Each structure stands twice: as C-alpha cells, then as structure tokens.
C-alpha cells in the first residue's frame, strides 16, 4: 500500500509563553526585571516532534484540537509557514498553552493551563482511521484526547511511538500510552528505578524498544532485554535552553528507525538532535536538518562507539545537558 505520510503526529499542539528568570527555583520577590523579555510562540511537544521529523526529510502530518483563539492562530501560522499538513479539530476550551520559566543554564519549569481541555474532546474516529491508513508510523503525545485514538491506531496496523516524559512509573494516566506503543520514550527524572520501569513497560506492553533519556547522563536503550547506555553528544554551540530536546531526540530516533538503522545508531541520531535542540533559544522552534545531522553523525567523535555495556541508570536530578525532556 502506498502511503502519503511517514510520521503522523497526534496531539501536543499548543503555545508557550517564555519567561527568562535569573535562577531556578525562583526566590519569592514582589517583582523582577527580566531580559530578554517575554515571548509567546507556537510550539509544544507534538509541534516539536512534527517540526523535527519534517526537518529530517520525513513526510509529516499533525492532527490535534485547536481553539478559535489567538493561540490557535499562532499554531496555524506555524504549520502554514513550515509547509506541514495540519488537521485541526475544534476545541471549545481553546488552544493548549503554557508558561515556561527558563533559567540561565537552560533548565525550564513549565506551568500548563489545565483549563484548556475537556473530557469530551475527541479526535474524530473516521479522520484518525483515514490518516493512519495513509501513514507509515504514528507518534502519539500523551495529551487528552489522544488516549482514545490508541485503539484506532492499533486497528490500522501502523506502528506507534509515544513519549511518557517525566512519568513517575505509577501514575495510571500514562499506562495506556506506555503499553500500546511499539517504541516508548521517557525521561528517567522522576523514576526511583529507571531500569525496572523500562523493563516493566517492555514486559507488559507491546514495546520492542524502550528509551530512557537521562539529561547529562545520556540515554538508556532497552532492546530485546539488553540494556545499553548511550552517551551524550557535545552540543555544536553553547547550551541555552533544554525545552524540546526530548522531542528532538524522539524525532532523530524515528528518522533512523524508519530508515532501517539499528537501534544504537537511532539513539545516536537522537542524541545529536537533542544536543542541537539545546542550542536553540526557547523563543524559537527550530530543528536540526537532515544534512547537518548526518554530517555530525559522520564526525569521528560522534560516529565512534554507539553505546557502552549495560549500566544501571540513575535518576537525573539536574535535567540539563544534551538529552533532556521535551
């Protein structure tokens, strides 16, 4: 069957307001004078994945709920300007939005507006089925209403990936995503025993590959019961912001995976993309391009050993460096 799309992204479209702060955590004060100012731009987890795989040359389509509001206009403009097809489903609650406090070292604290969703929100079943039938792969963001689309994707036969972000390994909200995906990404930040959680996902769900990103410690790759450590890649420029690095890692990994590369090579692509994302100011939504990623992958210090022998992962508390959450 001929497909029109390489990666169908479901969910995670929204707008962030970026506020640079002198330090995190931010001490209480009546007021702060901040530089370089406050900027609102389109770009949340699904947007970063869509932009990332598109920049790597993969045919991309995104579907999500948007509101008839200024935030929705920013998202629509982003996809129009980048030439990425976007299927919009109306949300009466409005477009998802968040405020990101960004510290001088690039770490961030995100405040999500939880009023921008409704329990009744759904992606139309016929639309999801049609898009899935025309796609090679679906990446599902853990935002409502994407959980309801998971059975439809399974019926279509398309492979599925998801990112659990900073799951604690216990919150039941994440489980449908963790157990329905063939490829699972998650941050080790909130996990007491990352290896146990990764192995549990693989044992109870469909995942053939589980990737745990661990900030400055690199990433951990579980494939067929074998756990490997994938080191970080030195960013090509100073680290200015960690926002979207986990999504960039996922995009780089998917680029390799859909191209038939072995999982270790895919993880190195992810590390390169994640490192690049850390050099992009939080006020922009840009991704590494295919030629740049492949050039970096060919450099001797990057193209060397793809991974070390298994090492027990430890929770990352700083959550900064080349590979962090999205």
From TrEMBL:
Pfam families the record matches: PfkB
Domain Carbohydrate kinase PfkB: 7-285
Residues covered by region (Disordered): 298-326
SUPFAM superfamilies for this protein: Ribokinase-like
PROSITE patterns registered for this protein in UniProt: PFKB_KINASES_2
Top-level taxon in the UniProt lineage: Bacteria
InterPro entries per UniProt: Carboh/pur_kinase_PfkB_CS, PfkB_dom, Ribokinase-like
Record's keyword terms, sorted: Kinase, Transferase
PANTHER family referenced in this protein's UniProt entry, alphabetically: RIBOKINASE (PTHR10584:SF166), SUGAR KINASE (PTHR10584)
Protein name: Carbohydrate kinase PfkB domain-containing protein
Lineage per the UniProt record: Bacteria, Bacillati, Actinomycetota, Actinomycetes, Kitasatosporales
